[in-house]
Amino acid sequence: MNTITAAITAVGAYVPDFVLSNKVLETMVDTNDEWITTRTGIKERRILKDADKGTSFLAIKAAQDLIAKANIDPLEIDMIIMATATADMPVASTGVFVATEIGATNAFAYDLQAACSSFLYGMSTAAAYIQSGRYKKVLLIGADKMSSIVDYTDRATCIIFGDGAGAVLFEPNYEGLGLQDEYLRSDGLGRDFLKIPAGGSLIRTSEETVKNRQHNIIQDGKTVFKYAVTNMADASELILKRNNLTKDDVNWLVPHQANKRIIDATAGRMELEDSKVLMNIERYGNTTSATLPLVLSDFEHKFKKGDNIIFAAFGGGFTWGSIYLKWAYDKK
Ligand code: UT7
């Protein structure tokens, strides 16, 4: 019997229409386009303006885009993993709601939360279910409505984050394509440097926590930056070495889009030329769980069957890692 590998066989994406540019941010906090562009690489981000719509809205749109493009029957989906740091509600899984809304009524679903590494970890989980032979169609969605947890008076966070969603379908492959290797790590020392302090079981929501703005995301950007650069570069270098890949063997780097300088440092350590380093951070900013599938969606037309792709991410927690995947199809 052939070994089963787990391949990505389809991609979908969605970003809301409203564009929040650096120029507009200049009118909201003490910042400027030049600083944001040179320090992060971001020019604009998308925002879901509707107050009555949550992350599920973005996720449903991305999943429906994938279903339409791949022409699959939602009833065939076995499982949905919803990677998100901004669930619709603390309890009642967003993934479950999304599954029902897209008509995937034969699937079971749940949420996976690992901050900006949610999608990367989700790739590992989805692939493991496929490789085991247990399921045939696993839909992995990465979506975040970051605008729901961003304090638009805090220039350390509001310039970075945006809203968006992407989805990929994992299916069995018998030609050795798909996920080849992974290196995933986490370190709880990071939890104080990037967090939403209140609203969980540690600090219950109260008038006090609302008054103190403890339900917004806060970060010590400098510290997160330092750990992100080191760990994303280390993980990507390790994956190359462990799989005997040289820089010439790598076709594409799909990095988490948090800061162009973090991406440049990772690519530099891998000695990759710029043309292999995929970025759309200038248009979307950091969409947390959605960055990796949004890059896949934007550059899918360039990928060829057999291409070697390295994924890398770093996020709050801390969480980070790198995945080596062989692309499984040429886009029609
Ligand atoms: O996805 C994982 C989650 N997050 C990340 O990966 C984010 C990682 N961190 C970063 O991307 C960067 O640390 C930031 C973009 C958040 C900040 O960039 P930085 O180069 O680390 O800036 P800094 O905090 O060291 O500040 C440098 C200077 C300071 O001024 P002085 O003290 O040198 O006069 C800040 O007050 O820039 C100032 N500054 C700003 N100026 C204009 C900080 N934020 C801003 C701003 N606009 N938005």
TrEMBL record:
One Gene Ontology cellular component: cytoplasm
GO function terms (MF aspect): 3-oxoacyl-[acyl-carrier-protein] synthase activity; beta-ketoacyl-acyl-carrier-protein synthase III activity
Pfam families listed in its UniProt record: ACP_syn_III, ACP_syn_III_C
Subcellular location: Cytoplasm
Gene Ontology annotations of biological process type: fatty acid biosynthetic process; secondary metabolite biosynthetic process
E.C. number(s) listed in UniProt: 2.3.1.180
UniProt-annotated stretches for the region ACP-binding: 257-261
UniProt pathway: Lipid metabolism; fatty acid biosynthesis
Domain Beta-ketoacyl-[acyl-carrier-protein] synthase III C-terminal: 240-327
Stretches assigned to the Beta-ketoacyl-[acyl-carrier-protein] synthase III N-terminal domain: 110-188
Coiled coil: none
Principal cellular location given in the protein's record: cytoplasm
TM ranges: 309-329
SUPFAM superfamilies, A to Z: Thiolase-like
Active site: C116, H256, N286
HAMAP family reported in the protein's UniProt record: FabH
Domain comment quoted from the record: The last Arg residue of the ACP-binding site is essential for the weak association between ACP/AcpP and FabH.
Stated role: Catalyzes the condensation reaction of fatty acid synthesis by the addition to an acyl acceptor of two carbons from malonyl-ACP. Catalyzes the first condensation reaction which initiates fatty acid synthesis and may therefore play a role in governing the total rate of fatty acid production. Possesses both acetoacetyl-ACP synthase and acetyl transacylase activities. Its substrate specificity determines the biosynthesis of branched-chain and/or straight-chain of fatty acids.
NCBIfam families in alphabetical order: fabH, PRK09352.1
Family designation: Belongs to the thiolase-like superfamily. FabH family.
Assembly and binders: Homodimer.
Annotated PANTHER family: 3-OXOACYL-[ACYL-CARRIER-PROTEIN] SYNTHASE 3, BETA-KETOACYL-[ACYL-CARRIER-PROTEIN] SYNTHASE III
Protein name: Beta-ketoacyl-[acyl-carrier-protein] synthase III
